[in-house]
Amino acid sequence: MRWWNETWQWAGLRVINALARSVPVEHEWVAYGDSPRHHLDWYRHPTPGVRPTVLFFYGGNWRSGRRQDYRFVADTVMTLGCDVVVPDYRLYPHVRFTDILRDARMATEAVLERIEPNHPLVLLGHSAGAQLGALLTLNASLLSDPARVSGFIGLAGPYDFYPFTENDHWELFGPEPAYPASQPINFVRADAPPLFLLHGADDTRVRRGHSKSLMLKQQAAGGHAERRVYPGLGHVDLVVAFSRLHRRDNPVVRDVAEIIETLSASATPPCRSDGD
Question: Which CATH topology does 19-264 take?
Fold first, then answer.
């Protein structure tokens, strides 16, 4: 699966998305703010029922990405019996991280306003999106009702990356007093929703030590955190696993299904897989 590279990443996403749409779906386009980037795609099963909602934040180094390019993630997560939301958010260098995080907060609040309290909400994110999801899960000041989040699944996320190693990150996450607020590891707490941190053993973009560091500090704080490392997988492989070409018997998708079922078992029927 190491065929992926950044030079043709977006072309690859278009191909993957062309193979998606394998389940019946109702699609709603929702504005959660005033910016052209303040929109989200909401994918629902056409049959009524109480099921988990998975809110997916894509990555892209906080500077790239479109919700339309991740239809394939929604497609696969829907085969697990869940509804899925994929929001856009504003990007650097047009805004700084404080605005990006504000957008993620607004999108999450918009979802919470539209689902019933007994519907589990699971945050799922890849790379920069995993950092956003981890902050929303751990920093109790970010959401009006943080207990509504059932749990967090992070794919190849950066959680402990200060001091910064990329030159423009000093500006992106600035000003200097705001630097600590960008690090999920600074918000570990015993009463946080469970964290499930998935990482590729061969990830050279965001090394798996990020997941280990957050897991150990969250456990030391008395919270629940688990880490799963996948031999032979790199940074983008963890999200490509959700493509229709790769999801069959894929350990990443299998573990995500198991985690969502665990998080939602007390409130909803178990998630199910179509076996594809």
Answer: Rossmann fold (3.40.50)
